[in-house]
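Quick one: structure for this chain?
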Amino acid sequence: MRDLVRETRLDPKQFILPLFVCPGEGVRKEIGAMPDNFQLSIDELVRECREVYSLGIGGVILFGLPEAKDEIASGAYAADGIVQRATRAVRGETPELLIVTDVCNCEYTSHGHCGLIKDGDVDNDATLDWLAKTAVSHARAGADIVAPSDMMDGRVGAIRSALDENGLEKTPIMAYAAKFASVFYGPFREAAASAPQFGDRRSYQMDPANAREAMLEIELDLEEGADIIMVKPAMPYLDLICRARERFDTPIAAYQVSGEYSMIIAAARNGWLDCERAMIESLTSIVRAGAGMVLTYFAKAAARLIA
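Got it. Here's what it folds into:
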């Protein structure tokens, strides 16, 4: 009877699994701060994506670790960049799997920030061209959705214009619209080797205290052409997912980030929590708040449990 009257249900099709692709062959390097997650070479990534598809998971989002970094993030928008090559390989092996690509620069810059550094800070407007070129190169490689995560003002409009001008008008944009300067990203920075070499990202990521500003950021991204909006992180911002669901009719994604994942895993390994119950309860809370899709490192484990 409890199942019959349940108000919020989880489905593997709601999940998007973040994956980290790196150079080399036969590489499957576990991420220390994120047990059961790996940096994968393209051949291993393809194998992982076959499993993801077989589990009925909604899709994957790809993050790249380039062979080399520079001050202008050239690996992000190179036609033969790591994500571009990975996207083509996955598309060739699992053509029906939804591929989202993260559009940002922090993994590709030698300083670890999301844009061009000028006078010690990120130059917002100068960075837009990099992002637009990256999105176009990802879409040409076969990405179904491009997802700008940089939080530069105006980047959704710049990407939409560039996609349309290059005959890629059918490529949707999933905008990291309300992305906060959060402590919960710590393990990800090990996974993506993207920690800033100086300062932090508070000049362009959002203040965790600002809810009204989050709604404004979402509204601006929608006006510029975003098709899906995202709140990141998820659990510390369930109230904002709920507000966004009440205010906007667009599809809403939420990112259950690395710190959220690692906290649950660490507590479970210490015997303080039941991992499966904590995983399902946390995912249920995100969907209950209003997210139609969840980017989560629990995607495979949750899909198996639900099945």
